[in-house]
Amino acid sequence: AGLAADALGLLDVLGVERAHVVCRSMSGGIGLIIGVDHPDRAASLTFVTTSTCEPGLPGPSAGLAARVPADPDPADPAAMADFLTGQMKAYSGGSPYFDEAATHALAQRDVARARDIAATLVNHYAMDIDGPKRGGFADITVPALVVHGELDPVFPLPHGRALRDAIPG
């Protein structure tokens, strides 16, 4: 809810009444909160590689953990950039469109600008996760699109189908 409030606050500061909200992975929760609790602020919602996280959906693809490199020394910027690149390569699911050189350049910039790069490796686990106050995916009334690839190793395709089926229309 706090991250959704931040996004809405940014729209307020920019003078944007309604926005097309695109959410990827965990940020699908931000889009869900905006779409359900603040539908007047969303012109549309796009959920990319997101999940309803309902019971019975499959876990990450077999072998994903083996493809993610071991945690590096946070004091070594080159090792951190290599690690982040390897992590993104594993998360690409073997996509032929993964650009390792571009990803490595981005990882180097991320490492260089981070105040505490080690904290970025654990921030997902420190979050308090909450949902909308006025319902769930079935209560979305704004136009919505679900984009999900069949190679997604974190959320296999049944997650995308479950999300599609959970949103009316």
Report on the architecture of this protein:
This protein has 169 residues and is mainly alpha-helical. It is built from 8 helices and 3 strands; from the N terminus they run αβαβαααααβα. Helices cover 44% and strands 10% of the residues. It has a 3-stranded parallel sheet, covered by helices on one side. α1 packs across α2 and α4 crosses α5. The model has no long low-confidence stretch (mean pLDDT 92).
What spatial form do the alpha-carbon principal axes imply? Answer: globular
Helix percentage: 40-55%
Low-confidence stretches: none
Count of DSSP-assigned helices? 8
> What's the β-strand tally?
3
* End-to-end CA span: 25 Å
Mean pLDDT, all residues = 92
**Strand-residue proportion:** 5-15%
**Biggest pleated-sheet summary:** 3 strands, parallel
Overall structural class, as computed from helix and strand content, comes to mainly alpha
Question: Order of strands in the sheet with the most strands?
Answer: 1-2-3
Which radius of gyration do the C-alpha atoms yield?
Answer: 17 Å
Along the chain, the helix and strand elements come as HEHEHHHHHEH
